[in-house]
Prior knowledge:
Layout: E1 8-13, H1 19-22, E2 28-31, H2 44-53, E3 59-62, H3 69-79, E4 86-90, H4 96-105, E5 114-120, H5 124-128, H6 134-139, E6 144-148, H7 157-160, H8 163-175, E7 179-182, H9 191-197, E8 201-204, H10 220-246
Parallel strand pairs: 1-2, 1-8, 2-3, 3-4, 4-5, 5-6, 6-7, 7-8
Amino acid sequence: MNSIIKPKILLSVKDIHEISKVINYADIIDLKNPNDGPIGSWTINNIKEVVREYNNIILSATLGNLKDLSEVKKKLNVFDSLGLNFIKIGCFCKSIKDLNKFLNFFKNTKTSATIVLVFFAENYEIINNLNNYFETFQNYNIKNIMIDTKNKSSRGLFENLTLNKLQKILLKSHKFDISIGLAGKLQLCNLINLLFLNPNVIGFRGAICKTKDRNSDICFQKVKNLSQSINFEISKAQETAGACIEA
């Protein structure tokens, strides 16, 4: 790792009441419904309420578990009118052929909000070919992607993908100036590996909930502990890197 850069911290909330628990510790507050699959969406009215009340913070929202591109287009147009900073769209493609069709949809798609494409770690065919698509991402003006887990009751990101596989993807993304976010049952014990990979964004939900169930309420103390742990590990990594340079 050539330089230690603090990633942006994305914390997912299930309702407006949880925002007060994370607002001082999140760079991006993500509006996601954990009770509805991997990227379940909030209702339009609830998103509008958050945008009205919290107009000075960075907000992202998940579009929902949509597979039909006509449904994606229809809902994307609505979400793009809400004043969000980021809109996360899941790639539920099962083959390279489907992936090409999916990406082609974004070739001429213009939005006010920044689109984040979410790829799932369990979809090995797509993940194994991801490095072949960074030029396409760049040509289609896709600047942000996230690798997350689809099955939230099963294995986490680092159980699905090796550190070596993720490192190759991250290194390729940096060459094309594409932001990479990592999420998927991440825990405090993953911080060293996360910093080694040097992603632009890391996302958490389950790690800051009262229980291991991501559907439970957010615990403020866990949010605070996470923030302190991230700052500590970054400071330690920077000191180590500085010592190596001096030597």
